[in-house]
Fold:
Amino acid sequence: PVDSDDSEDTAEPTVLLEQLISVANEVNVYPNPNSTGVFYVDLGKVELETTQLQVIDAVGRVIDNMKLVDDMNRLIELQIPAAKGVYYLRIITEGYGSVTKQLIITE
Structure:
C-alpha cells in the first residue's frame, strides 16, 4: 500500500512561496521610471548573506551582477550605464528563489 499522507510535502512549497512574496514586498526600487539610469534599491529586511542582485537587459543579458554581504548598507545605489529602455532587477536569494523587478529608463 502507498501512503497518501502528503501533508509534509505540500507544506514546504507554501512556506517557500510566502518567504519569496515577503522578499518581493521588502525590496523597493526608486525612482522608477527615471531618465538618469540611477536607481536606489532598498532591501528592507532581506537576509543579505546569500543574496545576489543582477541587472538584465531586455534581451536577457546580465549587464551587472552584485553579491551582497551581511554588513552591507541596505540602501544600494544602482547605476545602469545603458540606453533608455526596460531592464530587470533580479534579486536571487539562496533557499527562497528569485524575485524580478522591472526598471525603466526614459529619455
Notes: Strands lie at 28-30, 38-42, 51-56, 62-67, 75-79, 85-93, 97-105. The chain has a mean pLDDT of 82. Residues 55 and 61 are 8 Å apart (CA to CA).
